[in-house]
Write a structure and sequence with these properties.
Mean pLDDT: 83
Oligomer: single chain
Strand order of the largest sheet: 2-3-8-5-7-6
Order of helices and strands: HHEHEEHEHEHEEEHEHEHHHHH
């Protein structure tokens, strides 16, 4: 019997194909919007997780101030070389401690130039970031301490300024500073959202502070733990030492943050969950509008087929059979819209992640949820017209003009 009702429903849909399409357009838009937005959000989160994993799970980042609303001050003072020395000397579980100040600058060599990111740091930076030297050498401790105008070029900057020539031993201009190139970095490739990790120039922190930054503070610190050391335990040690050095009284909040990769990953996941929930709510409104459209068109269909319903009831059809027939028609409409929305949404999502250079991450639960929700829309909004059809009086229905 159900198969027969399904055939009748498909016949009714085919009979008014354009009207059926317009009816389920809201469902198609809602479902495809959910698939598109959630897939892009999943791809973004996956890209960030991959990038974080590439940075290393044993790395900590320390920065002044607190990002929590109302906590700490954005104006919290930066760190000093004495803080770096204290971390290096008093916490034996740290493998590398590197300062990090960042600024944008234009690098010029000959007739070529490139706007890039300049990082002021020390000879511990490459170890902390698991980076290698391709040619030349890393900073020597004396160069860092003296603030020599030396620099190391990332692979992209090197390629832009020198193509296939070896830049080691030659001079470049970083902003207004003339710098001797002492080395080039091995290539790391693109990071999240297409960011080029190799588009950087490294210089000694003292040079950066004196010639680019204009002050002696350190904006952030990169820490790397020794093998087998818990980053959670290390965070506590770093926090205690910095509280002591920054004279923070017991009970007072920190005016700095120590973050590890796990926390950053969790923060990304939390942001993604909030974003997904918001997008799903917006798409839910489209599905609701689609459901109202289905109910409206089913009421029209009941009116148009009143005599047919009366004839069926007269020859012995039961109310529940009429009820089931119209519910099946509503389900066919909404599920058709849901399936079309899934296919269109996946196609749009694939095009979007290709354009944004993100991984294509399909969530089976999202697809199952979109399919189930579209069916639920048909069931809910198809019930009222179906009940109205089932409760028609056979005599009145046959008299209907």
């Amino acid at each position: 019997m159900f198969l027969e009702m399904l055939k009748l429903a498909l016949r009714a849909v085919r009979r008014n194909l354009l009207r059926s399409f317009l009816t389920v357009l809201g469902v198609i838009i809602g479902v495809s919007a959910v698939i598109l937005m959630v897939t892009v959000a999943n791809g973004t989160a996956e890209q960030v997780r991959t990038e974080i994993a590439r940075l290393g799970t044993d790395v900590l980042f320390v920065r002044p101030g607190q990002r929590a609303p109302g906590a700490a001050s954005e104006a919290a003072k930066g760190f000093t070389e004495r803080d770096i020395a204290a971390l290096r000397n008093q916490i034996p579980d740290l493998r590398a401690v590197a300062p990090q100040n960042i600024a944008d600058a234009t690098v010029v060599a000959g007739g070529n130039n490139r706007k890039t990111v300049v990082i002021g740091t020390s000879d511990a930076f490459l170890d902390a970031q698991d980076w290698t030297i391709e040619s030349g050498s890393d900073f020597a401790g004396a160069e860092v301490a003296a603030g020599d105008t030396a620099c190391i070029l990332g692979a992209t900057v090197k390629q832009t300024l020198f193509a296939d020539d070896d830049p080691v031993g030659r001079n470049v201009r970083v902003g207004n500073i003339s710098c001797a190139v002492i080395g080039t970095l091995g290539a790391k490739g693109e990071a999240g959202m297409g960011r080029d990790q190799d588009d950087i120039v490294l210089m000694p922190i003292a040079t950066f502070q004196r010639r680019l930054g204009g002050d002696s503070y350190i904006e952030s610190i990169v820490l790397a733990a020794k093998d087998g050391v818990s980053t959670q335990d290390l965070k506590a040690e770093v926090g205690d030492l910095l509280r002591e050095r920054r004279n923070i009284l017991p009970g007072r909040p920190d005016d700095f943050e120590v973050n590890d990769m796990t926390e950053i990953t969790n923060a990304v996941s939390g942001t993604k969950s909030h974003l997904t929930g918001m997008l799903a709510a917006i798409a839910g409104v489209s599905l609701l509008v689609g459901g109202i459209g289905i109910m409206n068109i089913m009421l029209v269909s009941v009116t148009e087929r009143t005599r047919e319903i009366g004839l069926r009831l007269t020859v012995g059809a039961l109310e529940r059979q009429v009820l089931l027939q119209f519910i099946v028609e509503a389900l066919v409409l909404s599920i058709s819209g849901g399936v079309a929305g899934i296919v269109i949404g996946l196609g749009l999502a694939y095009a979007a992640v290709q354009y944004l250079s993100l991984p294509f991450v399909i969530d089976p639960w999202m697809i199952a949820g979109a399919f189930g929700f579209s069916a639920l829309i048909g069931l809910i909004f198809g019930y009222f017209p179906a009940r109205r059809a089932a409760r028609l009086s056979p005599i009145d229905a046959l008299r209907f003009e």
